[in-house]
Protein: Cbb3-type cytochrome c oxidase subunit I
Amino acid sequence: MATTYRTCPASGLQFEAHAEKLMKWNAVVAVLWLLVGGITAIGVIMTRWPAFKLLPPDQFYTILTAHGIDMLLCWIIFFEMAVLYFASSVLLRCRLAAPKWGWVQFWLMVVGSVMTNVAIFQGESSVMFTSYVPMQAAPHFYLGLILFAVGALIGCGVFFGTLVVAKKDKTYTGSIPMVTFGALTAAIIAVFTILTGAGILLPTFLWSVGLIKEIDAQLYRMVWWGLGHSSQQINVSAHVAIWYLIPAIVIGAKPLSEKVSRGAFLMYILFLQLASAHHLLSDPGMSAEWKVLNTSYFMYFAVMASMIHGFTVPGAIEAAQRRKGFTNGLFEWLRKAPWGNPAFSGMFISLVSFGFLGGISGVVLGTEQINMLMHNTFYVPGHFHTTVVTGTTLAFMAVTYLLVPTLFKREMIHPKLCQIQPYLFGIAMSITGLVMMGAGTLGVSRRHWDMAFSGAPFQYEWPGAAYLMMGMTGFFGVITIIGGALWIYLVVGSLLWGKKLEGGAVSDKPTPIPAATPAASASHHGSDHVGVPGTVVLVMALLVSFVLYYFVNWKYLSEVWLLS
Structure:
């Protein structure tokens, strides 16, 4: 199929015409779903805030279901489709394989996401994100998810095909770039995730229309978490790839060791899905041997992979900064990093919050004995808000500050607000996640709309600290929503009113990447062997924090042993 290639004059990135259109449309629809998810977040947070209790129970669970589906699936996976096309066609400077199938991906996901949302807002599918049987949703709830998943699977197929095209046309030499390798990891995990989802959603759909009598609840939970948790591993792989991309473009950073970083991505493929076991540790149907093997052995290989990225990404930044001359003391490289660049600041806040809050809390939840204290408490949404929101969503927001000028050819409006937004959103969400976990540690329930159980014949007196934590959750949650709304305003406003930028030269075939451009930095190979003492100190701080927090939770656990 005839096509053209546009070279962005500022970055040197080359956009193939079909890939460019698909990236734009997937990214725009992603932002629209983030808007819907943000509106539903207002209803969720203002209801769980004890001082307000905005919604009655039936409306709360409807809104909570929509919030989970739209944020965890619709917003993130639409954006990830754009990331896959970018990491393949743009970074490898090749035509997109089967662009017509790319449009099939897009429209299946649009139809599926709309169909599922229609089912939710009709009020008969308030089964929450997990949709555990025997709760039953309307048939078009499940059918929409199936169509959405098939579309995403087709998008992964187009991505794999584009890698084959690049190899065949010899548009790159050696291995694929690090960012593309991270996207490949995400796509491989996505195939496993989607096939697992099909394995449980198809029979559940048939059950909802009456063709199957019943679905075994324990079997459903086990197979569903192969979809539900593994879908978050797609996000981890994608946002870690963006962690490597942004420093490469902004300051020319190279990984400390390409082989080690690629090995960490490989460990994600082999072991990360096993982390889904932590959702099943309180289930009686799973054997003790299965629980111990998954959470006490295999899962830690995935944890090790994230720790490797947690060292190599800031290490790459430090090495690049030291090469630029910021060599005084341990942290001059960090003090003089480009904190005024929202792409960089958003990426770094994402890295720190994901590591210190999401990572440490995830390991705690993966410990079987401690999990018994935390499983059905507010601790769990606190954990995944520090992984999926400050980890994935903030990383996606950060890279958008680079993509709006290069992909959409528009200058960002309100530069000062752009600088503020990552701090407002990232710090507020980090605090929100932290106090959510604090409330969960005190026993506040995960799914009940009213922690006070108003009107119940028997009242439970929560400690004042629990109400304080939930009040802080509401307060900082609202600030987070404001930060998210600001990002949507800045992005949409830039697309509508931002100054038009020069599109760049167009040719009928890819051209060599100009040297010393961000595109060259993002697609280069090689490792940086500069010493990184500052990063070593930061990593040791993470490990000390982890050890201390881990043993604090064993202290909490020891307090219930007297009950036996």
The chain is about 70% helix and 0% strand. Strands lie at 5-7, 14-16, 506-507.
